[in-house]
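@here heads up, posting the sequence + SMILES for the S-adenosylmethionine run so it's all in one place. Ping me if the SMILES looks off, I pulled it from an old spreadsheet.
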Amino acid sequence: MTLYHGDCLEILPLLDIRADLLLTDPPYSRVKPDEWDRIDHMGLVALLDAMLYAAGRLLSERAAVYVFCWPAFADKLAVLMRHHFHLLDEIIWMKQTESGKRQSWAAQAEIAPLRKFFPETERILFASKADDGKYWELCEELRGEIMAPLLDYFRRAKEASGMKPVEIQERMQVLTGKRYVFTRHTFTRSQWELPTREQYEAAASFLPLPRRYDDIAVEYVARFEEYTTSRRRFEHLRRYHEPRRHNFTDLWRYAPVMPGSRERLHSCQKPLSMIQDMITTSCPPDGMVLDCFAGSGTTGAAAKISGRRAVLIEKDRRCCEIIADRIAGTLL
Ligand SMILES: C[S@@+](CC[C@H](N)C(=O)[O-])C[C@H]1O[C@@H](n2cnc3c(N)ncnc32)[C@H](O)[C@@H]1O
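bot reply: prediction finished. Complex structure tokens:
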């Protein structure tokens, strides 16, 4: 665990690391009364643009990126994230317990004076440094090789019939009464899939397809299993992603760390269990997490508990002292 005290824009260019996850919670822009949140929207755009550029250079090709923001800033952050990375999701963090109990300022809000809707959520923009293009390209090639005997069986039947694809398609629609694009899925390599029994039997009534559907289905299952096993050799080309049942969708429920609670160390502290879930979902077990706006060091504590390395940067001296004490006291 390494902690740097200073401005992330000055520290990032000095680092020589390869991080697997950028997980960071920047200022919100005039939401909190704290000094660090006095920055306006344009200032925050400039800060995050420079931070994403500098941090991006320290990320491995298959790294994931999470950046928190206040809902009113999400449109601007999305533009920045798209510019630097591949934006994948805009996660909504509902400040409720898992059972749906309201657990934020919204629980105490006075409704009558409101002139807009009360923010009970935050956004977490999720991105990848690169896309998984190479992985899918290799998988597609492998699938084509493994399924080749079945593809050839259908292709030979089409050639032997002398019919044009459009004629086959029209005949299939008459026979099945459905508009499924049989020719595209049965005769092309990239979109090939096993026809249903109904489709196969309709096609076999006018194309030379002598095999029984059950035999073909058994062969297909065996070949699909071979494909699933063989493609594991490409796994190192793929971004690590191991979500759990409670956070596999883009709507998350975690109770916030409310003022007055025993664990509260920072006005903007994130729930430890949420950060821990983000790390175990997106950072490989031997990986490294980078946080450029560390606050009270929740990312560091969660990384320590999860057995990942972490590099933290925080501008405020008092926060750095809190982080040092917190990490030292975090039990594994
Ligand atoms: C939203 S808080 C992070 C809270 C943290 N997630 C937690 O759980 O405690 C943002 C933090 O970023 C720090 N900060 C603001 N600008 C910074 C900069 N340019 N470089 C490094 N830290 C900065 C602030 O001091 C503040 O503690």
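MO: The radius of gyration is 27 Å.
MO: One more: Residues 7-9, 25-27, 36, 266, 268-270, 292-293, 295-296, 298, 313-316, 319 surround S-adenosylmethionine (CB under 6 Å).
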